[in-house]
Amino acid sequence: MDSLLKVNNVTMQFGGLRALGDVNFEIVEGEIFGLIGPNGAGKTTLFNCVTGVYAPTEGAVEFAGAPITGKRPDQIVDIGICRTFQQIRLFPNMTALENVIVGVDARHRTSVFGAIFRSPRRKREERESEDEALRLLDFCGVKRYANDLGRNLSYGDQRRLEIARALATKPKLVLLDEPAAGMNPVEKNGLRGLVRKIRDEGTTVLLIEHDMKVVMGLSDRVAVLDHGEVIAEGHPEEVQSDPKVIEAYLGTGGAATDGKAGQENSASDEPGTVSARAREPGGEK
Amino acid sequence: MECNFGLFGPQVVTGLILGFLYALIALGYTMVYGVLKLINFAHDVIFATGGIAVFYAFGMWFGITEPVSGVELLLVVGLSLLIGGIASSLSAAVLERFAYRPLRRRNAARLSYLITAIGASFFMTYMYQQNFLLGPGRRPFPNYMSRQSAVFEDLLGTRVTDIMFLLVITSIVCLIVLDRIINQTRTGRSIRALSEDITAAQLMGVNVDRVIVTTFVIGGFFAGIAGVLYGLRTGSVEFNMGFFPGLKAFTAAVLGGIGNIRGAVLGAVMLGLIESVSSVCIGSEWRNVVAFSVLVLVLVFRPTGLLGERMGG
Amino acid sequence: MAGSDRDLRTYLGDRYPRTAERIPDEVIKVAQPLFGVWRAIGYGRYLLAILVMIAIPILMKPEIVPFLEDFDSPIPYINGSFGVSVLVDTGIYILLALGLSIVVGMAGLLDLGYVAFFMIGAYTAALMTDSGGAEQFHFVVWPNLAALPFAVLVCVLAGVALGTPTLRLRGDYLAIVTLGFHEIVRQTANNLPQTNGSRGIPGIERPQLGPIEFTVLGSENYWFYLLIPAIILAVIMIRHLEDSRIGRYWTAIREDEVAAAAMGVPVVRMKVLAFAIGASTSGVAGWIYAGYLTFISPANFPLLASILILAAVVIGGLGSISGAVLGAVLVQGLPQVVREASGGETIFGFDPETGRIAVFGFLLIVVMIFRPGGLLAPKRRRVELSEASAAEGVIVDETAQPSKDEIEFASSVHEAAQHKEGS
Ligand SMILES: Nc1ncnc2c1ncn2[C@@H]1O[C@H](COP(=O)(O)OP(=O)(O)O)[C@@H](O)[C@H]1O
Ligand SMILES: [Mg+2]
Hints:
The complex is a heterotrimer.
Chain A: E1 3-14, E2 17-28, E3 32-36, H1 43-50, E4 58-63, E5 66-67, H2 73-79, E6 81-83, H3 96-105, H4 112-116, H5 120-139, H6 155-168, E7 173-177, H7 185-200, E8 204-208, H8 212-218, E9 221-226, E10 229-234, H9 236-241, H10 243-250, H11 260-268, H12 273-277
Parallel strand pairs in A: 3-8, 3-9, 6-7, 7-8
Antiparallel strand pairs in A: 1-2, 1-4, 4-5, 9-10
Helix pairs in contact in A: 3-5, 3-6, 5-6
Chain B: H1 8-36, H2 43-62, H3 70-105, H4 110-129, E1 139-140, E2 150-155, E3 158-161, H5 162-184, H6 186-196, H7 198-203, H8 208-234, E4 236-237, H9 243-256, H10 261-281, H11 287-301
Antiparallel strand pairs in B: 1-4, 2-3
Helix pairs in contact in B: 1-5, 1-6, 1-8, 1-9, 1-10, 2-3, 2-8, 2-9, 3-4, 3-8, 5-6, 5-8, 6-8, 9-10, 9-11, 10-11
Chain C: H1 8-15, H2 17-22, H3 25-40, H4 44-59, H5 80-106, H6 115-128, H7 144-166, H8 171-191, E1 215-216, E2 219-220, H9 223-242, H10 245-255, H11 257-262, H12 267-293, H13 303-316, H14 321-342, H15 352-370, H16 379-386, H17 403-422
Helix pairs in contact in C: 4-9, 5-9, 5-12, 5-13, 5-14, 6-7, 6-8, 6-12, 7-12, 9-12, 10-12, 13-14, 13-15, 14-15
Bound molecules: adenosine-5'-diphosphate and magnesium ion.
């Protein structure tokens, strides 16, 4: 199959901090691609570079064969990429339905004059918007909250609503930034199902995820980012056994703290050496 | 009008003097912006309050309206600057306490702050305009400096009067004092901490409310001093005397990088020069147009100003 | 969405929940059929309103209705030529408040120089029609009515010209830039010979509206009759925009600009659009104002006017159409009546003309503290303004990373690693 998204030598420099260094990878149409890596590795920054929030310092991003670097976020949505945010960014005082309709609007063409003079197109599009938005709310399992304000939904439902809103723009590629963060195991399970459903409907998925279980069971391929660099890429099983990846995950705190400390951590669910590796909280703009 | 280079020297001198005046006012904008990320639109009235307070204190109560000299002059000048500074500090503190703090308490939207600030500015300005206060016209500023005696007879072709001299010296002293406060005292450290990251500062035990009021008070004090100097220089006070100096000082703060104290001074001096030179080259009736056009251009091409937005020195 | 059979109480409840509860059942029962008819005629109601406005001057003549001869309006002071001038001034302010409410209320952009557009509209009208003055630099000399579309067009273009470079700026910078823009426009008109400087442009021609003699409250005045359709059209325009993807986009931008952009909203373009559409109503207002006064000068367009209109929009209720109307009446109509009533005396020491600015300044503070949405705020706006979203928190910046994630991350990594080692 053809490659849909191509990230070519992307570098992102924040003052003295190199958040991304020469990142390369490709996403093929129809796959679920997992992007993993420790906190502060640069995953969200990469999303921001792809979606036009930042212009990469160097390198280029290509989508379906055409360059998209330097385009504005709304132009990138037009081209067919849409995203969710790690720190949920719904429109808090709009209802769930309205939130999704804003996404649907991206594909609509009613002009100012059409709006002022209530053109037939506006009438048709308004009707379509509502139907389409309700369908998507249903698809994502949050239809019963259609008339609740975004801010009043539970955390997990807000994540689902964000996904519905992103899908409403009819993207060819959807970028999900840690959609399972903060969910309980049951919710995570449901989310996995949803991501598969999205792919089965024909949308390619690029997924950032913290929870290895979610990524490994779900992704066709994964790339591992560490310190802004891709340290491994391939099938989940291969990547999982890559010594570089294990080292990145277990932290560079030194031999003294790996192995045993890691086991203790997993048993007690306490932050250990790995959390010490987390750099500053991501400045998600 | 033709650009006459013979007039350049005097323009540089008056431009610098204007610049120092703007700098004193700009400090308040920039400090408040540093800690609250808020443009205090009411700062112009706080500036005016200083001049108006001295107008009342000297003109109405103490009856100091004749030029004095010698040690007496020093005392009177010192007293007037103190009165102006304190009056402005007080008004700034009241503004913070009763207008901004309630908004801060409930984490209000940015637009709410801006509207409140506009409201405060116009409330105070037009209170001054009422007949029970200043009234509509210009009022003579207490004339305790002669305005005639020159300190330098000929500096770059300009006669520098005692008031001009006072203005520059006071400004420089104020700037040095502020620099010390910000960089060497506990209060200054707290202010800097707040401007870096308010939540972190809070976690480290900084009393946020107190530091914010302090910031308003310090900025207000300098604005008050500027108000007195402005009154002396123009020889009058007026209910809306703060409007243009305030707007220009804000422009200066933005020009240098709002939130950045040294930037504010740099921006102020530049703006003062631009204004006085353009008065000669284009015509003084265009100087406000030039100043605001500079503001727009700076914002469009360099939104964080010349020196960026960091407060620390 | 709802048909003409919609329940009146539900309808009111959506807008003014608390007030709606208090209306007694009997009132609703009586009003329900009227409401049904009202909804059923749809746009007809606007037409009806315009027809009524035109009918009044034709019918309300002493020859037709004899008792009109000594008719006094029931509202004190709104009578004769003074009454008319109050109505016209208020009407112009309503038009301006509606325009500004698009910019501030709907798009959430603080414009402190809105009157600059009003001024541009008025000057365009003055310079295109047969007006006097020592030096005349008219572009063209057209009948007054023909200047109307141009006044609107020039205002819209000015909105685009100001908006395009500046609307990328953060909100508080925008406020100060618009303030500066107002001053630039005013000083330019004040300094240029083409606009006759501070002396202004006298003798502006009034529009000819055909053979009908327009009188209101016993005084000849067609301005009133121009304002009514203008206001109605502006209201329709705003309602329609609100209820379309454009209006949703503005709401989205207000709520979270970054998220809006990520959902395909062309943020800058939508903001410029708000500026341009907002400017269009002030173009109409400016054209009416020029013809009404027949003399304009920069002194007619002080910065204060911008602030008063902002006060009208904010006190009335940001984003609310009825709020803008109410605000304009409070800010412009009421003080005039109060001043007339006071007979030029001060009221509690306040000069009625300038004192109102102090009063409204104070009200802005009070409203922002106690009723952030204004008097007639739509529900959404009330919530928005009383509490910032995380995205724009002024003080508390929510950058905190949930440490829970880190814990989870650590454990999931270790599990995965162990899993691998074990297999
Ligand atoms: N706007 C920014 N300015 C400065 N540094 C940033 C900015 N955005 C992200 N960073 C830094 O880039 C690094 C990568 O962050 P991020 O992409 O959020 O990581 P991840 O999503 O993988 O946890 C971090 O060190 C973060 O502090
Ligand atoms: Mg991230």
